[in-house]
Predict the 3D structure of the following.
Amino acid sequence: MSNTIQVFIADDHPIVRRGIKGLLQTEADMEVVGEAANGRDAVTEVQRLQPDIVLMDLVMPGMDGIEAIKNIRAEGLETRILVLTSFATDDKVFPAIKAGALGYLIKDTVPDELVRAIRQVQLGQPTLHPAIAQKLLQEISGSSHQPPSPDPLTEREIEVLRLVARGYSNQEIADTLIIGVATVYTHVSNILAKLHLASRTQAALYALREGYASLYEDEGSA
């Protein structure tokens, strides 16, 4: 299996696509395998090409990025989605994360940070612009009308939550804890239900806020 990260660019501005493509061509471990100028074409091409990463703009003609994310995630592909957009408003951020984006960057992100984010998302690690992370943390902190379930997380669920926060996939969690993938899926579902969270990214942020995980954990730490 190739170690090259296959990237697809979905953005309605040709100059943006060309600029990103030029940047990624300088990275030995990255290859741009396709591009699209609207969400509908992005969905079709991602289904065909099945790239590792999609860089997804949110405001595009025909079908916007949020709908495109939903359609891509509904296909059950291993492709991971990193939003790269000009918008940091709540009506864009929360729907994009809920739809299944694993990362969210603003277009003022410096090139080196974009490259780093692509590598992180490829590893399954949620990657958020600081302003976006702050919004999501505030959203989780402000969800007091739906407090966590009185049924506390079990020790095993806390173990799973820590690994989710470190960006592990269900298969990687199963391998680490020596349990079945279906069991991991059940644990993740229970965690989201108990905490009244909508996605793994929100669960990762919750784990950071509550001290179950740290942004500065070593890759080999427990």
